[in-house]
Amino acid sequence: MATKSRGPSGNNSAQNTYGLSKMLTVVAWLCCAAGILLIVLNLQPFNDNNLGLMIGVGCLAAFAIIYSLAKWLGSMQARSDEGKDGIKDD
Asked: Does Transmembrane helix count among this protein's keywords (predicted)?
């Protein structure tokens, strides 16, 4: 007797993708906060030899990439969920 398996926790793939999107959003905001903190704490001297400042700028760049990826995954999953029913003629 075969049954449809939904994985070890009983979640389907849509719920897992939404969870991944939320987790990436949280990680992105943490990265942004760390970047701002590093920039504020290491503002002097303002040059490229200041490692703390450069890491802070890198964290802000990583924030933009991670946040964009999180929103892209969420929107693609929402679009996929819309199309599962197919086109229905009224």
From this structure: yes
